[in-house]
Amino acid sequence: MTDKALAIFEKMNEMKYTNDLEFSNLMGLFMKVGEPEKVPLLVEEMKRRNIPLSLISYQTWMHSYSCLNDLEGVERVMDKAQRQENIKDEWKLYCNFASAYVKAGQHQKAVPSLKKVEEILGDSNYPDRIGYHHLISLYAGVGDLESVIRAWDKMKSKFPACNNLSYLTMLHILSKLDNVELLKKYFQDWNTKYKSFDLRLPTIVIVAYLRHDMLEQAELLLKDVTDRSGNKVWKVHALFMDYFLGKRQIDSALRHLEKAMTNQWKPLAGSFDPFIEYLIEQKDVNNAEQFFHLIKKDQSLLSTAYLGLLQIYAAAGKIAPEMRERMEQDGANIGTEHEELLEKNSNLMEASKRGASSRVAKKRRYQIVKSGFSIEVPARNCFRPVLCNRCLESIYQWMEEDGATIGRNTRRCFERRSITASAL
């Protein structure tokens, strides 16, 4: 993308179409692809061509130095910008300047610029709601709750009917500052005045409630938003799922997972990693199967679901019955990781079959020996030489389990075959 943009820029340059807009767009592109060091070079080229810088150019130039952790560079740009005349939306320049200090952790240096923004917005005949949103966010960035509330009140004086976006900004900030009481207050203020319901606002409050283990309040709010939004609350159920999973309450987590999937939740990659990690840690095959059946309903998750299920069976050391057949029947993509785990599962099945056959054989021998001990001594003695010590140890354990009487002659038989007294 960068190469194509540069090619277009050069073509426009050849045709002498380049102006501040083209340079500003190219600066923005370099910032987007993580190459802020190229922005000052473009500014120098603009100066060489006598192309005046716009507000956007100054903002991007300043931001590039901020990304490079060069506060002196930021200050130089601000000094140059302040000398320019007729810059519109001057508050944006000061917000950028303050943001650089906030990013660097130098909060005290940011405050004068924030006061300047507050002054500009307050004196303007054309108040800017978005300007106040930025101001409130930056005051929160320096941890100044008093100024956050003051800026909010000033905005409300200019915009009595605050819209959803304004309340969304305020609630997000109060949640970030972890002030639950004020969060509840401003949420209730919105809840009594809104013109259109916006699920994002109660979601912020629910997140804060769950963070503080205020489960009852969170569940009441969930019920309320469900009544208002119907099946659109899958994201909220996902939040509850994560909460209960963190509390190791797997049944509740699965219940909310089921509701989220029923409400058409389209989870992002990695959304179920904590779930799978928990089930692996607990070696919980039963709940793993329930988890699998919930998420396999989404065909795009089928391969991931089977991989998680195989990992859980492997961690538990248990056989996953007919797993390859299940995957093929469902049309799941079988990748390299699946194949490795299926191979381990197959080996475990073979080992289990061999073990079962061995146990059956030993049991049959025991039945023979058990019968042999009930017949005459000469015939009984014929059975003893063919038994290995390990078999005799197993036979002795089985005889105990059956409550068989181990008489003196039988005990001598075991002793002659080197079965130790401790084993007996």
UniProtKB/TrEMBL annotation:
One of its GO terms (molecular function) is mRNA binding. Keywords: Repeat. InterPro entries: PPR_rpt, TPR-like_helical_dom_sf. GO terms for cellular component: mitochondrion. It comes from the Eukaryota. The keyword Repeat applies. It holds the Pfam family PPR. Belongs to the PPR family. P subfamily. This is Pentatricopeptide repeat-containing protein. It comes from Chenopodium quinoa (Quinoa).
